[in-house]
Amino acid sequence: EADSGEYTCDTGDQQTTAAVLVKGLPVLFKHWLKNEEVEEGRTAVLRCELTKPSVPVEWRKGDTVLQPSDKYEMRQEGTRVELFIYDADAQDV
């Protein structure tokens, strides 16, 4: 989208101008989340992959937005996004 704007070709005697509008593609999932089964006390990891790198994502459990803490760690590298759920217990389901 930074390349959107007016461009001009100028010969010195004449010029012609055209507008370029760059439309952003939607962010889609290349790989979706998969169900995980983990023993109590262990770490559960959820992973997905996006079609664009470094897109801000929001992780939720039900309606609650998750924040980084001792319990949850969010990692993002390029198009890969991961959620780590540490010391899982039955109430994390």
UniProtKB/TrEMBL annotation:
Q: Does the keyword Nucleotide-binding apply?
A: no
Q: Which residues form the Ig-like domain?
A: 26-93
Q: Work out whether the entry's keyword set contains Cytoplasm.
A: yes
| Superkingdom to which the source organism belongs | Eukaryota
Q: What keywords sit in the KW lines?
A: Cytoplasm, Disulfide bond, Phosphoprotein
Record's GO cellular component, any one?
A: cytoplasm
- Short name of one Pfam family for this protein? I-set
InterPro entries in the record = Ig-like_dom, Ig-like_dom_sf, Ig-like_fold, Ig_I-set, Obscurin/Obscurin-like_Reg
Q: Please state where this protein is localized.
A: Cytoplasm
Please identify the protein, giving its name as recorded.
OBSCN protein
Question: Which organism's genome codes for this protein?
Answer: Pampusana beccarii
Gene that encodes the chain: Obscn_11
